[in-house]
Design a protein that fits this description.
homodimer, Aspartate Aminotransferase, domain 1, globular, transaminase activity (chains A, B)
Chain lengths: 396, 396
Amino acid sequence: MNYRFSDTTKAFESSAVREILKLTQGRSIISLAGGLPNEQFFPVEAVSEAFDRVFKQGKGVLQYGLTEGYTPLRENISKHLERKGIRAGVDNMLLTTGSQQAIDLLTRVYIDPGDVILVERPTYLAAIQVFQSRQAKLVSVDCDADGMIPEDLERKIKQHRPKLVYVIPTFSNPTGKSWSLERRQSTLNLCKSNDVLILEDDPYGELRFGGGEPMPSIFSLEQEANGGAVVYTSTFSKIVAPALRTGWVIGDEQVIRHMTRAKQAADLHSSTMDQQALHQLFEHFDLYGHIDQIRTAYETRMRQMIDLMKAKNWDGVQWIEPKGGMFVWVEMPEHINTQELLKLAVEEGVAFVPGISFFANEPQTNTMRLNFTHTDSEDMVRAFDRLDRALRRVEK
Amino acid sequence: MNYRFSDTTKAFESSAVREILKLTQGRSIISLAGGLPNEQFFPVEAVSEAFDRVFKQGKGVLQYGLTEGYTPLRENISKHLERKGIRAGVDNMLLTTGSQQAIDLLTRVYIDPGDVILVERPTYLAAIQVFQSRQAKLVSVDCDADGMIPEDLERKIKQHRPKLVYVIPTFSNPTGKSWSLERRQSTLNLCKSNDVLILEDDPYGELRFGGGEPMPSIFSLEQEANGGAVVYTSTFSKIVAPALRTGWVIGDEQVIRHMTRAKQAADLHSSTMDQQALHQLFEHFDLYGHIDQIRTAYETRMRQMIDLMKAKNWDGVQWIEPKGGMFVWVEMPEHINTQELLKLAVEEGVAFVPGISFFANEPQTNTMRLNFTHTDSEDMVRAFDRLDRALRRVEK
């Protein structure tokens, strides 16, 4: 059989990084590479009870559900969003298989091959893959610690006439950055006045350190009914558990309606078992107390990682201390290629993701993403000793 | 905000049928329209116990899983397929969100806009939607009671040079037909010798009436290692429950690898809660006894439907008595347009799906699909009285 795969299949070719990370499988390597929440904080008993409550309702819970998702859960998410200053009713909401699917569905209904999408420099790896698989043209906007730089954004809007801007303004993957209020507003204004849709990806917003007030989402800054210029997506993966694969996306009814139809073709609907259980969790579990517990634990881990890095006194190595989320973004001196460093690091018994994977174009080859949520305290110490040895070898 | 949706979004426009069926919501209408399994046979206690067993394993069950799906479940499906004469190892298998997603993922990795896909005349509505959303060109192959007619298939292969043939050879949706062995073999031979990939969609194969031996799948007829010319998909939706949204697709490793990467971009992975529970169900539940129970019950319902239709003595109305599955396909006299009939039927209090929705092109407007699995015995009697009244009105 001579297979004739589609042109877009090329976008899914395996990356060099994935190949290196495969080497870590089955070896005693400490991984700072993944984006995994810490299992220690999964509320397994509460989730188990939630499923019990669902099954007690009888056989009907196992039937096909709405493509839009289980309505009582959408109502609970709507209330949850209200606490964050976001107004979105059930008709403005679609439940998805993780927020990853929200990115994919919006891309399907909004992007044609050749359309331009503006992204942060750097941005989320798996969003790049979705956009490239749609044969979109990706253009990176220059960013600083506060977010997208308005002058560069404006220039690139005028030059490329993009349809979409994709952003992770709160505790970004991979950088851990949180945008300033001013930059959120300027990005919204620029996009709105140029009819550019914003996809605001917010999987980490609840993982806020320091106990302060949350930064408003771009969606909530949008005053048009239902956030006309902004589509917003988030997920339970980081605040409850990833295995439940439940995310949501909100936006204008017209956008959500199109996405719902696309989802109907894609998979009819996501697991309503998981959706019904999450509804029970909202009703019978102290979700916000639980989130507070995760926040505190992750902040401690982040602090340990930063302290360990400081103690190593690495020459010319810089990072941004995140105010939330799961990652620290590290810039090595320019002559260090982190893909080369990764090979040595894996030999020493530690893994990370080289930054190159997070750039749609013009990669900074001296960067890396470190995850601090999944590694326990003792392993974290070992990880940095190993990384230190690898770094000494590359410096030679 | 002036939205600029993608060209393919047009494929998802709401159909006239969907609009009519919306009228049934909240009214006391008996629906023979849906494709719903009967809730009465959902093994809710066994599923609940299966979830309990999963949660007893601890917090780790809530972590992210493999895109390919939970390995022990893939092993169990592999054994399940062996019983059907299908050899497929875990590396030839991807777990999906229902078999609907398998259709979508194969389309993504195999079809470019403008590529030709051959389908049965008629075929599964939601597959047509997926293919059209990819801007594929659909060509219907003429079928009789035994399956695709080889002469027409060969002619259309030579004329259109298709990349893919999509078939539901066993208890088809919408026709309930099961292809003869000869037609399965001739379709395979023709496709194989012309490098045309076959997507064999088999959601209903287990719902076999009459207790005889199952007809071999086209996949199992394919002698090349791993069924090189055939990709096969099925699901737990009809034999356990749809809410668990778990399907699988098997094929050549190369095809499965590409589909896995496409799935990674689409949603990372499907619910591993549901996959782990289904694994426990294989281990601790008499799945095959359960399937036998469903078969018997559905056969009784099918028999009732056919008997009711016979008793009505409708002039010039024909149907094929299905040997399995969930549907009876009815051909009315040529002058009856079933879309018009549906409006009257809904007024009388009964709904069905007009056949037009199941044709990729050249629709037979005098056809309809009736579901017999979801309506209980008393309502079935009422449904045909109502349909009878509607038919008398249209005949006037």
